[in-house]
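LOG
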Amino acid sequence: MPLRHIAVGLLAAGALAPVAGTLAGPAPGAGGSSGKNIGMRLVDAPVNARANSRAWCYIIDHLAPGSVIHRRVEVSNATDSPRTLSIYTAAGAIRDRKFQFAPGRTPNDLSTWTTTDRPKVAMAPHARSMVTATIAVPRDAAPGERYAVIWAETATPPPPGGGVAEVNRVGVRIYLSVGQGNPPASSFTIDSLTAERSENGRQVVLAQVRNTGGRALDLSGDLRLSHGPSNLSAGPFKVSTGTTLAPGDSGPVTAILNEQVPDGPWRARIRLQSGLTKAAAEAAIRFPASAGAARAVKAEPDTSHVPIASLVIGVVVSALATATGLLVQRRRLSRREPSVAGRDG
């Protein structure tokens, strides 16, 4: 029997199911063929999280034990041939600051709580179809955050006489927090910035980030340089995506400069966000002249990124507090006036 090799086309963990859909193979025009592409995207988001961009990419929710939710995902067949997609849920985890998916159909708690209404979907060429996923949390579920992936998979058998069998799958991540009451808060700090130069001469800035909240973070953002030699400025430089931090975890987030700049010194300002959770920090850095890393510099929190709406709310709250204080003071004075008049009489 001829040896059969199995080629598995998987999505990188940091690129699972963006809003516009995800392809298992190379995108058309990107050096690959569109004839092997399948896609999946999330259609629903919780009403209270619709302003959160992550909630449109991934299933993110907080549920009490005994709760049930339904979420729709759209699967697509961008090939010129009919495809039958297998729809299933398998385990996910956060390790080494990455969202990791388990091989095959490896289960965990969350994957066993998640079912789909259509385990198989027969699709015509260039067709789309809707699948409903149901997550039912057991009444005795322990509190905590759990991770899984809803997968759509298609397999092409090897040609007669042996060859390559291709298995392509795309998926949508699930981040589920279990517990009573409101969901745990999301927050993080940017502790330090480090300027580096790689072996090939590229300049890199590493931001050490610590997840101080109760939810996982998928970090993105940008870096800007100012107050450089001759008062130069540079950027913004995009932060490399794909860094996911579990609650209590910490690790570096990387910004690779796409242009050569003087070694410095520079005032570096980095802005990071995960959904609606944002933070910014600054530090004075200088890139090393040769390959290696400079000393890490403690970052100073930068609050200038706070949205105008938050500032307005702060001003309103302050004004209300002042008005309340004046009202209380007037009431106290009005209570004193009759007694003073009585003594005068």
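LOG (cont.) second protein
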Amino acid sequence: MKGKHVLLTGGTGGLGLGVTPAVLAQGAAVVTIPYRNPKEVERLKGILSPADFARIQFVPADLVEEVSVENIINQMARVDVLIHLVGGFAMGKTHEYSFENWKRDFDLNLSTTFLVCKHSLKRMLETGYGRIVTVGSRGAVEPAGQLAAYCASKAGVVALTKAIADETKGTNITANVVLPSVIDTPSNREAMGTKNAEKWVKPESLAQVICFLASETAKDIRGAAIPVYGSI
């Protein structure tokens, strides 16, 4: 990604702590990171060198609002790479799950993906180059009970990414999705305990797969759904 302009959503989150340093290490010129929590920006700053931190542009944003997404992308000189990490996990039995929570899950996991892909893709088509990498889930292809909203919304992410890959055939724009199992983040350890954490996918490991798909080298990979399951 040397010299590339990257839009990295979720770059300050638990997965972002692994992906953001990897993107910078790949030589990205400018990394634009939308954020909502200033404390997470400070947490990320604590693991980066001053030189790396200087290559990041932080933009306060709500990715469920289309105007907010448009404003982010309009501020960028160009969008060479989109890496979309934003998403959320929730559980509940289908017959007990509220419609409000269902809509919230779809907004967080699928609507944000649609909006950032839509507006990034417009810019990529103008320049004739682009790499789009989204994050689905193992649950998107192996749904489990009490995870209906999460699995269904992540399945939508997979379908959307594959559709974009088909729409961009014949161009130097690709779209691919990774399918992690449980990711070893602080929030997952807090919610699930640490008993099986050594089997979970490390953010740094998933970051290497994401960065490859986001690179020029991966020009012949499009519409792929890559399982990254760890030892589970």
